[in-house]
Specification:
Number of strands: 9
Number of helices: 10
CATH class of the largest domain: Alpha Beta
Distance between the termini: 27 Å
Helix content: 25-40%
Structural class: alpha+beta
Strand content: 15-25%
Oligomer: single chain
Shape: globular
CATH superfamily of the largest domain: Regulatory factor, effector binding domain
Order of helices and strands: HHHHHHHEEHEEEEHEEHE
CATH topology of the largest domain: Multidrug-efflux Transporter 1 Regulator Bmrr, Chain A
Length: 296
């Protein structure tokens, strides 16, 4: 006897659920409940839970727990100042042992192994279905293209905060700290959260110089494992780059069947455009780490 497959969800429902999933990921420290997620979607709880599981492959609260574990993996690699116990607590686990068990179930590695040496496993190439059809900002002159980026290595300078003033101050200092006559590519790395609503977790902005560059008291080593990225080409006022990020999260991702993974968002700059415009105009490649939104 053949099993009857459920009818596919309407496209409007799929887009609503995608927006909810992206909003949840953007503010993971919010105490999300089934009721609050359903209210954000504008759906009754029972229907929301059924539709969410159908579209994303997991019940809503299990999906949230998975995102928090994925963010914990990011912190183990990119926030070495945070202890493993603190990372586990921020993921919602009262004890290290509970965190370790959940982490191993999710990734097959213990938190300690990931802290010492991040496993480099590149999944299959994500596929975009609809994101390219929506209207894009005028400063987005190309993309998205899904391509592999990395591994990247270089040095970085952490801005004092995520404010425009602190970022500008970091860029004024950064070139003078770099060794002269060394081949390099200038870029930036930013945290992949807080683009849709104010975040309880501080965001980081790092000035990057990629290449064989030595660290110093003010410059720290920076690495990024190879990963699939959605690339957008940017050409316009430097002040509009963060507007492009907000559009990517608010408009492009909900239509793309993809979601951002917890890894730094990287922008690679063309220095000539900066020199010609005295930093007023940027030509850059913006990379968003992505994977399929539905769970494997």
């Amino acid at each position: 006897m053949m099993t009857r497959r459920p009818a596919p969800l309407p496209s409007e429902t799929t887009h609503v659920l995608a927006r909810v999933a992206i909003a949840v990921q953007d503010s993971l420290d919010t105490p999300w409940t089934l009721a609050s997620m359903a209210a954000l979607a504008g759906y009754e709880e029972h229907y929301f839970a059924h539709a969410f599981a159908e579209a994303l492959g997991q019940p809503p609260l299990r999906y949230v727990r998975g995102l928090r574990l994925e963010r914990a993996a990011h912190d183990l690699v990119f926030a070495p100042d945070r202890s493993i116990q603190r990372v586990g607590q921020e993921a919602g686990y009262a004890s290290y042992e509970a965190f370790r068990r959940a982490f191993v179930r999710a990734f097959g590695f213990s938190p300690g192994v990931v802290r010492k040496r991040a496993p480099r496993r590149l999944r299959g190439r994500p596929a975009v279905t609809e994101g390219g059809r929506i209207e894009r900002p005028g400063s987005c002159v190309g993309g998205p293209w899904i391509e592999k980026l990395g591994p990247l290595r270089g040095v970085s300078l952490l801005a004092a905060s995520f404010s425009d003033q602190a970022i500008a101050s970091a860029w004024r200092r950064f070139p003078a700290l770099l060794p002269p006559c060394k081949p390099r590519t200038l870029g930036a790395a930013v945290s992949p959260w807080g683009w849709l609503a104010p975040s309880l977790r501080p965001r980081e902005y790092r000035c990057l110089a990629l290449g064989h560059l030595p660290p110093s008291p003010e410059l720290t080593r920076w690495t990024l494992p190879a990963a699939w990225q959605a690339r957008f080409d940017f050409h316009g006022p430097t002040s509009e780059i963060h507007t492009l990020f907000a559009w990517i999260f608010g408009e492009w991702l909900p239509h793309s069947t993809l979601r951002c993974t917890f890894a730094p968002m990287v922008t690679l700059f063309d220095e000539r455009a900066w020199h010609e415009s005295r930093y007023a105009v940027s030509r850059a490649q913006v990379y968003l780490p992505v994977r399929q939104a539905a769970c494997d």
